[in-house]
Amino acid sequence: MSDARPAEAAARPADTAPATAPVLAVRDLSVRFRMRGGRHIAAVTAATFDLPAGECLALVGESGCGKSVLASALLGLLPGNAQTAGRALLGDTDLLAADEKTLARTVRGRRVGLVPQSPAAHLTPVRTVGDQLGETLRELTGVRKPDLDKAVLAAAERASFPAGHLDRYPHELSGGLAQRAATALALVGDAPLLLADEPTTGLDRDLVHRTVDELRRHVDAGHALLMITHDLAAAERVADRIAVMYAGRVVELADARAFFGAPGPRHPYARGLLAALPERDFTPIPGMPPELGDLPRGCAFAARCAHAAEACDAQPVFADGIACHYPPDRRAAGRAPHPFPEEHTGA
Ligand SMILES: Nc1ncnc2c1ncn2[C@@H]1O[C@H](COP(=O)(O)OP(=O)(O)OP(=O)(O)O)[C@@H](O)[C@H]1O
Protein backbone atom coordinates (compact mmCIF):
# COMPACT_ATOMS: atom_id res chain seq x y z
CA MET A 1 0.00 0.00 0.00
CA SER A 2 1.15 3.58 -0.48
CA ASP A 3 1.41 4.50 3.20
CA ALA A 4 4.56 3.41 4.95
CA ARG A 5 4.17 2.59 8.62
CA PRO A 6 6.02 4.84 11.02
CA ALA A 7 9.30 3.42 12.29
CA GLU A 8 7.97 2.53 15.74
CA ALA A 9 5.04 0.65 14.18
CA ALA A 10 7.32 -1.31 11.91
CA ALA A 11 9.44 -2.24 14.92
CA ARG A 12 6.54 -3.83 16.78
CA PRO A 13 6.73 -7.59 17.03
CA ALA A 14 4.54 -9.55 14.64
CA ASP A 15 3.17 -11.62 17.51
CA THR A 16 0.87 -9.23 19.30
CA ALA A 17 -0.98 -11.81 21.35
CA PRO A 18 -2.28 -10.26 24.56
CA ALA A 19 0.09 -10.81 27.51
CA THR A 20 -2.21 -9.35 30.18
CA ALA A 21 -5.93 -9.33 30.91
CA PRO A 22 -7.67 -7.42 28.10
CA VAL A 23 -9.02 -3.93 28.69
CA LEU A 24 -12.08 -5.00 26.73
CA ALA A 25 -13.36 -8.56 26.32
CA VAL A 26 -16.24 -8.90 23.87
CA ARG A 27 -18.08 -12.21 23.82
CA ASP A 28 -20.83 -13.15 21.37
CA LEU A 29 -22.01 -9.57 21.16
CA SER A 30 -25.14 -9.37 19.05
CA VAL A 31 -27.39 -6.41 18.28
CA ARG A 32 -30.63 -6.57 16.42
CA PHE A 33 -33.19 -3.90 15.67
CA ARG A 34 -36.90 -4.53 15.97
CA MET A 35 -38.73 -3.14 12.97
CA ARG A 36 -42.38 -2.67 12.09
CA GLY A 37 -44.31 -5.85 11.39
CA GLY A 38 -42.10 -7.95 13.66
CA ARG A 39 -39.13 -7.82 11.25
CA HIS A 40 -35.59 -7.77 12.64
CA ILE A 41 -32.33 -6.37 11.37
CA ALA A 42 -29.34 -8.39 12.59
CA ALA A 43 -26.79 -5.55 12.67
CA VAL A 44 -24.14 -7.42 14.71
CA THR A 45 -23.99 -11.17 15.27
CA ALA A 46 -21.82 -12.97 17.82
CA ALA A 47 -18.82 -10.63 17.71
CA THR A 48 -16.02 -11.98 19.90
CA PHE A 49 -12.62 -10.41 20.48
CA ASP A 50 -10.20 -9.19 23.15
CA LEU A 51 -8.48 -5.83 23.19
CA PRO A 52 -5.49 -5.54 25.55
CA ALA A 53 -3.79 -2.37 26.74
CA GLY A 54 -1.22 -0.99 24.32
CA GLU A 55 -2.98 -2.44 21.28
CA CYS A 56 -4.97 -1.02 18.39
CA LEU A 57 -7.59 -3.24 16.81
CA ALA A 58 -8.95 -1.83 13.55
CA LEU A 59 -12.48 -2.89 12.65
CA VAL A 60 -12.87 -2.73 8.88
CA GLY A 61 -15.57 -3.63 6.40
CA GLU A 62 -17.98 -2.17 3.88
CA SER A 63 -20.52 0.48 4.78
CA GLY A 64 -23.50 -0.91 6.68
CA CYS A 65 -21.74 -4.06 7.97
CA GLY A 66 -22.37 -3.14 11.63
CA LYS A 67 -19.16 -1.44 12.74
CA SER A 68 -20.76 1.68 14.22
CA VAL A 69 -23.58 -0.29 15.80
CA LEU A 70 -20.98 -2.40 17.59
CA ALA A 71 -19.28 0.77 18.90
CA SER A 72 -22.64 2.23 19.98
CA ALA A 73 -23.41 -0.99 21.85
CA LEU A 74 -20.14 -0.66 23.77
CA LEU A 75 -21.09 2.85 24.84
CA GLY A 76 -24.73 2.11 25.66
CA LEU A 77 -25.79 4.50 22.90
CA LEU A 78 -28.11 2.25 20.93
CA PRO A 79 -31.60 3.45 19.97
CA GLY A 80 -34.70 2.15 21.73
CA ASN A 81 -35.53 -0.49 19.12
CA ALA A 82 -32.22 -2.30 19.70
CA GLN A 83 -31.90 -5.62 21.52
CA THR A 84 -28.50 -6.86 22.65
CA ALA A 85 -27.06 -10.22 23.66
CA GLY A 86 -23.65 -11.39 24.82
CA ARG A 87 -21.14 -9.57 27.00
CA ALA A 88 -18.66 -6.71 26.66
CA LEU A 89 -16.47 -6.64 29.74
CA LEU A 90 -14.53 -3.49 30.56
CA GLY A 91 -12.74 -4.71 33.66
CA ASP A 92 -15.61 -6.14 35.68
CA THR A 93 -18.25 -3.88 34.12
CA ASP A 94 -20.43 -5.50 31.48
CA LEU A 95 -21.11 -2.59 29.15
CA LEU A 96 -24.17 -4.32 27.72
CA ALA A 97 -25.75 -4.78 31.14
CA ALA A 98 -24.68 -1.52 32.84
CA ASP A 99 -27.41 1.03 33.59
CA GLU A 100 -27.41 4.49 32.05
CA LYS A 101 -26.28 6.15 35.30
CA THR A 102 -23.16 3.97 35.49
CA LEU A 103 -22.39 4.49 31.80
CA ALA A 104 -22.84 8.27 31.99
CA ARG A 105 -21.00 8.81 35.28
CA THR A 106 -18.18 6.32 35.19
CA VAL A 107 -17.76 4.91 31.69
CA ARG A 108 -18.18 7.46 28.88
CA GLY A 109 -15.26 9.88 28.78
CA ARG A 110 -13.56 8.42 31.85
CA ARG A 111 -13.07 4.75 31.02
CA VAL A 112 -14.04 4.86 27.34
CA GLY A 113 -13.24 7.85 25.15
CA LEU A 114 -15.11 8.28 21.86
CA VAL A 115 -14.03 9.93 18.63
CA PRO A 116 -17.49 10.00 17.02
CA GLN A 117 -18.36 9.35 13.40
CA SER A 118 -20.23 12.68 13.07
CA PRO A 119 -18.16 15.14 15.11
CA ALA A 120 -20.17 18.20 14.05
CA ALA A 121 -23.28 16.63 15.58
CA HIS A 122 -21.35 15.51 18.67
CA LEU A 123 -19.95 18.94 19.57
CA THR A 124 -22.14 21.35 21.55
CA PRO A 125 -23.28 23.90 18.95
CA VAL A 126 -23.53 26.94 21.26
CA ARG A 127 -20.07 26.73 22.84
CA THR A 128 -16.65 27.36 21.37
CA VAL A 129 -14.19 24.52 20.99
CA GLY A 130 -11.95 26.12 23.65
CA ASP A 131 -14.85 26.27 26.12
CA GLN A 132 -15.75 22.65 25.46
CA LEU A 133 -12.17 21.51 25.91
CA GLY A 134 -11.87 23.59 29.11
CA GLU A 135 -15.06 22.18 30.57
CA THR A 136 -14.10 18.60 29.71
CA LEU A 137 -10.62 19.10 31.19
CA ARG A 138 -12.10 20.53 34.41
CA GLU A 139 -14.55 17.68 34.73
CA LEU A 140 -12.26 14.78 33.81
CA THR A 141 -8.84 15.91 35.07
CA GLY A 142 -9.69 18.48 37.77
CA VAL A 143 -7.32 21.07 36.27
CA ARG A 144 -8.29 24.66 37.23
CA LYS A 145 -7.17 28.19 36.36
CA PRO A 146 -4.47 29.42 36.05
CA ASP A 147 -3.32 26.10 34.51
CA LEU A 148 -6.49 25.56 32.50
CA ASP A 149 -5.61 27.72 29.47
CA LYS A 150 -2.29 25.96 29.06
CA ALA A 151 -4.02 22.57 29.38
CA VAL A 152 -6.58 23.58 26.70
CA LEU A 153 -3.76 24.51 24.32
CA ALA A 154 -1.95 21.24 25.00
CA ALA A 155 -5.16 19.23 24.46
CA ALA A 156 -5.78 21.02 21.14
CA GLU A 157 -2.20 20.47 20.04
CA ARG A 158 -2.45 16.72 20.68
CA ALA A 159 -5.07 16.46 17.94
CA SER A 160 -3.44 19.09 15.68
CA PHE A 161 -6.33 21.48 16.33
CA PRO A 162 -5.00 25.01 15.63
CA ALA A 163 -4.85 27.26 18.69
CA GLY A 164 -6.10 30.20 16.60
CA HIS A 165 -9.44 28.40 16.07
CA LEU A 166 -10.21 27.62 19.72
CA ASP A 167 -12.64 30.56 19.89
CA ARG A 168 -14.72 29.16 17.03
CA TYR A 169 -18.13 27.52 17.31
CA PRO A 170 -18.68 24.08 15.75
CA HIS A 171 -20.67 25.50 12.81
CA GLU A 172 -17.65 27.66 11.94
CA LEU A 173 -15.40 24.61 11.52
CA SER A 174 -14.67 22.60 8.39
CA GLY A 175 -15.33 18.84 8.59
CA GLY A 176 -11.63 18.19 9.16
CA LEU A 177 -11.37 20.73 11.99
CA ALA A 178 -14.52 19.38 13.66
CA GLN A 179 -12.94 15.91 13.46
CA ARG A 180 -9.79 17.19 15.16
CA ALA A 181 -11.82 18.98 17.85
CA ALA A 182 -13.68 15.74 18.58
CA THR A 183 -10.40 13.80 18.71
CA ALA A 184 -8.95 16.36 21.16
CA LEU A 185 -12.03 15.99 23.39
CA ALA A 186 -11.84 12.20 23.26
CA LEU A 187 -8.20 12.16 24.39
CA VAL A 188 -8.72 14.52 27.37
CA GLY A 189 -9.91 11.93 29.88
CA ASP A 190 -6.96 9.60 29.21
CA ALA A 191 -9.48 6.76 29.20
CA PRO A 192 -7.94 3.25 29.10
CA LEU A 193 -10.12 2.43 26.07
CA LEU A 194 -10.58 4.73 23.11
CA LEU A 195 -13.23 4.08 20.45
CA ALA A 196 -12.52 5.98 17.27
CA ASP A 197 -15.32 5.75 14.70
CA GLU A 198 -13.90 6.86 11.33
CA PRO A 199 -11.44 9.31 12.93
CA THR A 200 -9.88 10.24 9.59
CA THR A 201 -13.04 11.16 7.68
CA GLY A 202 -12.71 14.51 5.91
CA LEU A 203 -8.97 14.83 6.55
CA ASP A 204 -6.34 15.22 3.84
CA ARG A 205 -3.61 12.56 3.74
CA ASP A 206 -1.15 14.62 5.77
CA LEU A 207 -3.70 15.12 8.56
CA VAL A 208 -4.70 11.47 8.36
CA HIS A 209 -1.09 10.63 9.15
CA ARG A 210 -0.90 13.12 12.00
CA THR A 211 -4.19 11.93 13.48
CA VAL A 212 -3.39 8.23 13.34
CA ASP A 213 0.14 8.83 14.60
CA GLU A 214 -1.33 10.68 17.59
CA LEU A 215 -3.72 7.78 18.17
CA ARG A 216 -0.74 5.42 17.92
CA ARG A 217 1.16 7.43 20.55
CA HIS A 218 -1.92 7.07 22.76
CA VAL A 219 -1.78 3.30 22.23
CA ASP A 220 1.97 3.16 22.85
CA ALA A 221 1.36 5.00 26.13
CA GLY A 222 -0.60 1.94 27.23
CA HIS A 223 -4.16 2.63 26.09
CA ALA A 224 -6.35 0.31 24.05
CA LEU A 225 -7.81 1.60 20.79
CA LEU A 226 -10.70 0.18 18.81
CA MET A 227 -10.63 2.03 15.52
CA ILE A 228 -13.50 1.70 13.10
CA THR A 229 -12.49 2.69 9.62
CA HIS A 230 -13.01 2.42 5.88
CA ASP A 231 -9.49 3.73 5.44
CA LEU A 232 -7.33 0.63 5.08
CA ALA A 233 -4.18 2.75 4.64
CA ALA A 234 -4.85 4.40 8.01
CA ALA A 235 -5.57 0.97 9.53
CA GLU A 236 -2.27 -0.35 8.18
CA ARG A 237 -0.42 2.59 9.70
CA VAL A 238 -1.90 2.35 13.19
CA ALA A 239 -3.28 -1.11 13.90
CA ASP A 240 -1.73 -4.14 15.57
CA ARG A 241 -4.62 -6.39 14.61
CA ILE A 242 -7.40 -6.24 12.06
CA ALA A 243 -10.97 -7.42 12.54
CA VAL A 244 -12.88 -7.73 9.28
CA MET A 245 -16.66 -7.48 9.51
CA TYR A 246 -19.07 -8.69 6.88
CA ALA A 247 -22.86 -8.59 7.18
CA GLY A 248 -22.71 -8.10 10.94
CA ARG A 249 -20.14 -10.81 11.70
CA VAL A 250 -16.43 -10.66 12.37
CA VAL A 251 -15.17 -12.99 9.63
CA GLU A 252 -11.41 -12.61 10.16
CA LEU A 253 -9.17 -11.49 13.02
CA ALA A 254 -5.55 -11.15 11.99
CA ASP A 255 -2.21 -9.67 12.89
CA ALA A 256 -1.99 -6.41 10.92
CA ARG A 257 1.43 -7.08 9.43
CA ALA A 258 0.46 -10.53 8.20
CA PHE A 259 -2.83 -9.10 6.88
CA PHE A 260 -1.33 -6.22 4.88
CA GLY A 261 1.91 -7.97 4.02
CA ALA A 262 2.59 -11.68 3.72
CA PRO A 263 0.75 -14.03 3.72
CA GLY A 264 -2.13 -11.52 3.41
CA PRO A 265 -5.77 -11.89 4.41
CA ARG A 266 -7.23 -15.38 4.63
CA HIS A 267 -10.97 -14.81 4.25
CA PRO A 268 -12.09 -14.44 0.61
CA TYR A 269 -13.98 -11.25 1.54
CA ALA A 270 -10.94 -9.75 3.25
CA ARG A 271 -8.80 -10.64 0.23
CA GLY A 272 -11.38 -8.92 -1.97
CA LEU A 273 -11.36 -5.80 0.22
CA LEU A 274 -7.60 -5.41 -0.20
CA ALA A 275 -7.64 -6.31 -3.88
CA ALA A 276 -10.23 -3.57 -4.48
CA LEU A 277 -7.78 -0.85 -3.43
CA PRO A 278 -6.53 1.39 -6.27
CA GLU A 279 -2.92 0.77 -5.24
CA ARG A 280 -3.50 -2.99 -5.45
CA ASP A 281 -5.60 -4.71 -8.14
CA PHE A 282 -8.35 -2.06 -8.26
CA THR A 283 -10.83 -4.90 -8.79
CA PRO A 284 -14.14 -4.52 -6.96
CA ILE A 285 -15.78 -7.46 -5.24
CA PRO A 286 -18.66 -8.50 -7.48
CA GLY A 287 -22.22 -8.16 -6.17
CA MET A 288 -23.57 -6.48 -3.08
CA PRO A 289 -23.70 -7.44 0.62
CA PRO A 290 -26.98 -9.04 1.71
CA GLU A 291 -29.70 -7.11 3.52
CA LEU A 292 -29.18 -7.43 7.28
CA GLY A 293 -32.92 -7.97 7.58
CA ASP A 294 -32.81 -10.91 5.20
CA LEU A 295 -29.58 -12.79 5.79
CA PRO A 296 -29.02 -16.22 4.25
CA ARG A 297 -28.89 -19.24 6.53
CA GLY A 298 -25.29 -20.05 5.66
CA CYS A 299 -22.22 -17.93 4.91
CA ALA A 300 -23.41 -14.40 4.05
CA PHE A 301 -20.52 -13.95 1.62
CA ALA A 302 -21.15 -17.14 -0.35
CA ALA A 303 -23.20 -15.39 -3.08
CA ARG A 304 -20.17 -13.20 -3.92
CA CYS A 305 -17.46 -15.76 -3.27
CA ALA A 306 -15.52 -17.47 -6.06
CA HIS A 307 -14.73 -20.32 -3.65
CA ALA A 308 -18.27 -21.03 -2.44
CA ALA A 309 -19.22 -24.68 -2.25
CA GLU A 310 -21.98 -26.80 -0.80
CA ALA A 311 -20.64 -26.53 2.75
CA CYS A 312 -21.17 -22.76 2.63
CA ASP A 313 -24.95 -23.31 2.88
CA ALA A 314 -24.21 -23.75 6.60
CA GLN A 315 -22.93 -20.93 8.79
CA PRO A 316 -19.15 -21.28 9.18
CA VAL A 317 -17.93 -21.40 12.76
CA PHE A 318 -15.34 -18.77 13.72
CA ALA A 319 -12.16 -20.68 14.55
CA ASP A 320 -8.42 -19.97 14.28
CA GLY A 321 -9.14 -16.32 13.47
CA ILE A 322 -11.50 -16.94 10.58
CA ALA A 323 -15.09 -17.81 9.76
CA CYS A 324 -14.84 -19.65 6.46
CA HIS A 325 -15.34 -23.23 5.37
CA TYR A 326 -12.47 -23.00 2.85
CA PRO A 327 -9.73 -20.57 3.89
CA PRO A 328 -6.59 -21.07 1.78
CA ASP A 329 -4.44 -22.52 4.58
CA ARG A 330 -7.04 -25.07 5.61
CA ARG A 331 -7.49 -26.04 1.99
CA ALA A 332 -3.74 -26.46 1.67
CA ALA A 333 -3.54 -28.41 4.93
CA GLY A 334 -6.35 -30.64 3.77
CA ARG A 335 -8.36 -30.05 6.94
CA ALA A 336 -11.46 -29.43 4.87
CA PRO A 337 -12.52 -31.09 1.63
CA HIS A 338 -11.00 -29.04 -1.17
CA PRO A 339 -13.59 -27.76 -3.62
CA PHE A 340 -11.05 -26.33 -6.10
CA PRO A 341 -8.37 -28.95 -6.79
CA GLU A 342 -6.76 -26.71 -9.41
CA GLU A 343 -5.81 -24.22 -6.64
CA HIS A 344 -4.42 -26.93 -4.40
CA THR A 345 -0.86 -26.39 -5.51
CA GLY A 346 0.68 -25.45 -2.18
CA ALA A 347 1.05 -21.80 -3.28
N1 LIG B 1 -31.95 2.34 14.65
C1 LIG B 1 -31.80 1.46 13.67
N2 LIG B 1 -32.86 0.75 13.25
C2 LIG B 1 -32.70 -0.15 12.26
N3 LIG B 1 -31.55 -0.42 11.64
C3 LIG B 1 -30.48 0.25 12.01
C4 LIG B 1 -30.53 1.24 13.06
N4 LIG B 1 -29.29 1.75 13.20
C5 LIG B 1 -28.49 1.11 12.31
N5 LIG B 1 -29.21 0.22 11.60
C6 LIG B 1 -28.70 -0.67 10.55
O1 LIG B 1 -27.62 -1.43 11.08
C7 LIG B 1 -26.73 -1.74 10.02
C8 LIG B 1 -25.32 -1.48 10.46
O2 LIG B 1 -25.10 -0.05 10.51
P1 LIG B 1 -23.71 0.60 10.92
O3 LIG B 1 -23.93 2.08 10.99
O4 LIG B 1 -23.17 -0.07 12.11
O5 LIG B 1 -22.78 0.26 9.68
P2 LIG B 1 -21.27 0.65 9.47
O6 LIG B 1 -20.56 -0.61 9.17
O7 LIG B 1 -20.78 1.48 10.61
O8 LIG B 1 -21.36 1.53 8.17
P3 LIG B 1 -20.88 3.01 7.96
O9 LIG B 1 -19.42 2.91 7.86
O10 LIG B 1 -21.53 3.42 6.69
O11 LIG B 1 -21.36 3.79 9.15
C9 LIG B 1 -27.16 -0.92 8.81
O12 LIG B 1 -27.87 -1.77 7.95
C10 LIG B 1 -28.08 0.10 9.39
O13 LIG B 1 -29.06 0.51 8.46
List keywords for this structure.
347 residues; alpha/beta; four-stranded antiparallel sheet; 12 helices; globular; disordered N terminus; disordered C terminus; binds adenosine-5'-triphosphate
Q: Globular, elongated, flat, extended or rod-shaped: what is the shape?
A: globular
Note poorly predicted spans: 1-18, 333-347
Number of helices: 12
Distance between the termini: 22 Å
Series of secondary-structure elements, N-terminal to C-terminal: HEEEHEEHEHHHHEHEHEEHHH
The ligands bound in this entry are: adenosine-5'-triphosphate
Q: Which strand-content bin applies to the residues?
A: 15-25%
- Helicity range of the residues? 25-40%
Strand count: 10
Rounded mean pLDDT is 88
| Alpha-beta classification | alpha/beta
Major β-sheet profile: 6 strands, mixed
Q: Over the alpha carbons, how many angstroms does the gyration radius reach?
A: 21 Å
- Strand order in the sheet with the most strands: 6-7-8-3-9-10
